[in-house]
Amino acid sequence: MTDRSENAAGPASGSFLVAALYHFARFDRYQSVRAPLQALCEENGVKGTLLLAREGINGTIAGPDESIAKVLAFLRAQPEFTHLEHKESRASRMPFLRMKVRLKKEIVTMGVEDIDPNRIVGTYVDPKDWNALITDPDTIVIDTRNDYETAIGIFKGAVDPKTKTFREFPDWVKNNSGLHNKPKIAMYCTGGIRCEKATAFMKEQGFDEVYHLKGGILKYLEEVPQEESLWEGACFVFDERVSVTHGLKEGDHKLCHACREPLTVEDRASPEFEEGVSCPHCFDKRSEEDRERYRQRQRQIELARKRGETHLGS
To answer: If residue 200 lies in a helix (H) or strand (E), which one and from where to where?
Structure first.
């Protein structure tokens, strides 16, 4: 990851600056930082989610450039986060509805005790060197994200664990003895944070040569030219943009507000798609009573939109 001075503007454009960040550090006083951080964000029109835990910070925020700069300056003024890095992209409209600073047990939930990326972690690989690693026949490439994320994009030749949550990943590793068949394991995720824990876990399990993509898919899509890219599809992001593509341009996916699955243009052309109510992924999993409840919510959202307001249920 790079900090803001190295990554201004970029190929994607939009009125709002989006900053994705995480940092593992011993942060025993995390509870006391919540209130001033929440207040600073609200005072400066910054929205998004930041998670604070004893192991560090994780989250994504969006707002005017100068407001994001103030929040990042506040975070880097904390002794634990002096070396905090972040990744930037842009959004044509505010991609979050509100600002949430939450206290958590983990900043990314794996559910395995004593996994500490500050103590043991895999080897970072810069985006410019990633293609060479994942095309090496001695390498197994693993996507550490969940199934709804891998459904819209994945690196060519990568193994998809098809996990529903990151908590399932440790069991998936333990149940796949074939991962020992090649000497190198290369892992990746959206921004890098899941791989910090995933590679630490793999090292604890006895895997020796474990690598992970520095800055995640987002950094790869930012830095690697599309004509050289081994990325196929779009990258799911956890905000109202839903997906980004090469150059971190906004993708054309939308979110089904009934089941939270990302939808392609083809999905939205399906007779099973009704905005805010159903899509091909969930139509057979919901009752007509459920859909009627969603329709009532959607009507409230549309009324709020006509009034120029934001409905929190959207």
So the answer is: helix 193-204
Q: In 101-174, which residue ranges form alpha helices assigned H by DSSP?
A: 127-134, 147-150, 169-174
User: Could you give the domains of the chain?
Assistant: 16-103 (3.30.70.100), 123-233 (3.40.250.10), 253-313 (no CATH)
Tokens standing for residue 228: 């050289």
Active site residues: 189
Please state the length of the chain.
Answer: 314
d(CA 18, CA 61): 6
Give the DSSP letter of residue 106: -
Three-state SS annotation for 262-291: EECHHHHCCCCCECCCECCCCHHHCCHHHH
pLDDT at res. 310? 63
pLDDT in tens, 254-296: 999 899 999 999 999 999 999 999 999 999 999 999 999 999 9
- What is the percent of the chain with per-residue pLDDT over 70, rounded to a whole number? 94
Q: pTM (2 decimals)?
A: 0.85
Which residue is it, tokens 């399906």? 270
